[in-house]
Amino acid sequence: MIRFARLLEALALTPSRSAKLRLLADHVATTPDPDRGWAIAALTDSVGLRNARPAMVRALVQARVDPVLFALSYDYVGDLAETVALIWPAPAVAPDAPPPRLGEVVDRLSAAGRAEVPGLLEGWLDRLDAGGRYALLKLITGAPRVGVSARLAKTALANWGGQPVDALEELWHGLTPPYLELFAWLEGRAGPPTPADDLGLRPFMLAQPLEPDDLARLDPAAFRAEWKWDGIRVQLVGCGGRGRLYARGGDDISPAFPDIVAAMPGDAVLDGELLVVRDGVVAPFSDLQPRLNRKTVTAKLLRDHPAHVRLYDLLVEGDQDLRSRPFDQRRARLEALVARTRPDRMDLSELVPFTDWAALAAVRAGARAAAIEGLMLKRGDSAYVAGRPAGAWYKWKRDPLTADAVLMYAQRGHGKRASLYSDFTFGVWRDDGTLVPVGKAYFGFTDEELRALDRWVRSHTVRTFGPVREVTPALVLEIAFDSLQRSTRHKSGVAMRFPRIHRIRWDKPAAEADRLAALERLLVPGT
Amino acid sequence: MSVLSPPVPPRWLAVHPAGLYVAPADLYIDPTRAVPRAVVTHGHADHARPGHDHVLATPETLAIMAARLGDRAGHARQTLALGEALTVGGVTVRLAPAGHVLGSAQVVLDHQGCRVVVSGDYKRAPDPTCAAFEPVPCDVFITEATFGLPVFRHPPADGEIARLLRMHALFPERTIVIGVYALGKCQRVIALLRAAGYDRPIYLHGALVTMCRVYERLGVALGELRPATGADRKALAGEIVLAPPAATRDRWLGRLPDPMIGAASGWMRIRQHVRRSGVELPLVISDHADWDDLTRTIDEVARAEVWVTHGREDALVHYAQGRGLSARALSLVGFDEETGGDADETTPVPDEAAS
Ligand SMILES: [Zn+2]
Ligand SMILES: [Zn+2]
Asked: B249 and A418: CB-CB below 8 Å?
């Protein structure tokens, strides 16, 4: 538990992906079974311990600590689990047992009846240090969020064991914590674990961005075009009457989408885009957002944000793996499958007919519908290959929209950028002459421009709040973004998709930046 | 000698705008502005201000003040070694070790049968760079309270150093930069690293060099130290660099290869301070007493009354009252403000604006 706590702390504070991979690899290399497996399960939220409520934790601490001192401390710290972890007093008699191991905590909590939990918890809190107590409390009251996706954890394991991550991905679904057979394989002590059923994720095939001069080299007759929808890329897996829904990162998001899982058309693996669709119209991405990053879903969300999958591809049908077949064949099988089964909440992604690139470019330029990001170009003879194979699939994004905004706040970056102000919040003018923030961008500039921006921020600071500086409203940034949507979460009422700094307009007076009213004309219809 | 018990609180001690005033001796303790006669507990900028006419302090504190303040370290400087006593205007003044930084002292005042101890900043955790805190029983104990909440309990410092060295081993191509204050924390972290067997050169930001030299001159061995400024960028990969906290958040970092930024401070116990400071490697290492030591010390030394100052007073006042002591918060101004390069860890994330 102590080792797991140290790992959580380090992961939470490490911004870099490669450093996270190294921390994870070091943990599994130096921690014995079953604790290392439970650590991976806890990080990827596959432990499923939810047997302590905050009220129980509060009752435990109040039996031990003076209420005035607890109130002053909680007020100062602001988080219950953290306050309890820090304030928990050493027991009058030092416990003779060592701190519990993570495996012990999981085993005993899974076997414990409701009434036994407080006693177990109290004993463990006595035996752990502050970091260990915090990790324990987070583990039992909710998932510890430290920026580790399932994909990242699998990558770390694969790198450490010297196996391809796709191989690990394919057999992952058949594994259960603490993954003893997986570690045996990764350490070369046994062969690969055999999946128990076929509900596993097939690694996604991805597209490369289309560069401006690519089209000249590409034969239009060899390619098929489809709309690129602005949702979440997903994979649906159905087998023996059961179904799973995976997001691109490899996370199993089935529990949040029972509507989709229930609509699964038999034994098949399908690739598609998760969207919210009402009366046949695709809603903007912001409409999907309330359904994401949740463990469960309410009836109201199911009703108000109906999920839908627009199908792109068919990877497996029945017991036939189609991935080595050409796209055109898979597409024909997909069309037949949809026509035969007519699944609820699913439809085909239409092919966009075209004869030459100029005609397709015109179609692309004319598309202003909500939730269209651009076009996908797929070679008719392309097999479905994990990763981003060169020359097979291209994404041809719609030209971005742009707006001139005024820099309002800057924040220091992380890691290599920790010494520089590199996160920028910008705004546009309201009619009353005040600025209102419309977005935040972290990239789009060269290193040299970043240093110039950093200098500018430092010499134009009017106030600082922790790592954030408020600056004089005097610098105009030309912001590129993919679309603009209504948002109740932003004071301005609008939110940009994928904003980035297109140009720094050192020359332009701030008063000539865009007005909110002008920006609102770019809102996608229907939002 | 009267057989009646002396008046507590003593009428000869008062709080003036300049600080704590001992009337019969006409002297202030750690005054926050220039005064005719000052007793200075230790060399941190919020305690040792410039421009006093007459300064009484330990030889080490006077040496530190001279290095920091030069000519402005006091017109007349009088040393009083730890453990020695002096009588001024009928008040016996003794300096007892406070364990905070090199030369740091508590001020023990005896007058009319009543003993007052001013703790200054203190800690009870072991520190190889200064003399250990001496508990002095007294009628009135005036205690600091920088970490006066029960959530502040500093773990053993060697465990924190072990964590640092583990990260150093795991990321051998990165430079570890630890934010430390120039006086005390810097030398303690060096000494802890040496005690843990780390014998490579330790690199220092320019602002830390002077105080390390003062420590060495006063007999504290620190091993090989090298300037980080001007060092070859590549040579710093895999090394440990110490720098003032403000420098770890500034462009100065740009000269280091893939820096992993750390900070050594008691505030690193609280997640929101860690997040706000943006560090990757928080080390809970403090030169102040934590809650357990603050309360243990009150239990050991205070016979009648506790005055709480210099930090979070509420919780400690509540604690002392719960032990049957008379207790109150003493509002002395000027200790929680930021005072530049020789600051102490009085505030969680100081001087962002000054960087
Ligand atoms: Zn101090
Ligand atoms: Zn102080």
From this structure: yes
CA of B100 to the centre of ligand 2 (A): 9
Banded pLDDT at A368 (limits 50, 70, 90): low
Residue among B170, B278, B314 whose CB faces A72 most closely: B314
Centre of ligand 1 from the C-alpha of residue B55, in Å: 17
A172 within some domain: no
- Choice among A20, A138, A154, A228 that is catalytic: A228
In this structure, what CATH number is given to the domain that contains residue A88?
A: 1.10.3260.10
- Ligand closest to the CA atom of residue B98: 1
| Residue A189: count of CB within 10 angstroms of its CB | 9
pLDDT at A524: 64
CATH assignment of the domain containing A314:
3.30.470.30
List, in order of start, the domains of chain B with CATH numbers.
13-151+288-354 (3.60.15.10), 157-283 (3.40.50.12650)
Ligand nearest to the CA of B346: 2
Whether the predicted pLDDT of A464 surpasses 50: yes
The more confidently predicted of residues A153 and A146 is A153
Which residues make Cβ contacts (< 8 Å) with residue A454, sequence separation at least 6?
A: A420, A421, A422, B251
Q: Answer for the pair A423, A482: CB distance below 8 angstroms, yes or no.
A: no
pLDDT < 70 positions in chain B:
1-9, 332-355
Q: Does A138 qualify as catalytic in the annotation?
A: no
Distance CA A388, CA B353 (A): 46
User: Quick check: helix, strand or coil at residue A296?
Assistant: coil
Distance B114 CA to ligand 1 centre (A): 26
Tens of pLDDT, residue by residue over A319-355, are 888 998 999 999 999 999 999 999 999 999 999 999 9
Average pLDDT value for residue range A432-454: 86
Cβ of B278 within 8 Å of Cβ of A83? The answer is no
Give the pLDDT confidence of A247-269 residue by residue, as tens digits: 987 788 999 999 999 999 889 99
ipTM: 0.91
Measured between beta carbons, which residues in chain B are less than 8 angstroms from residue A464? 352-353
Average pLDDT over residues A191-203: 77
Give the pLDDT of residue A51. 66
In this structure, are A351 and A451 located in the same domain?
Answer: no
Cα separation, B233 vs B41, whole angstroms: 40
The range of the structural domain enclosing residue A510 comes to 401-520
The Cα–Cα gap between A65 and A71 comes to 10
> Using CB atoms, which residue from B151, B153, B259 is nearest to A83?
B151
Cβ within 8 Å of residue A21, ≥6 positions away: A152, A155, A156, A159
Using CB atoms, which residue from A19, A69, A87 is nearest to B171? A19
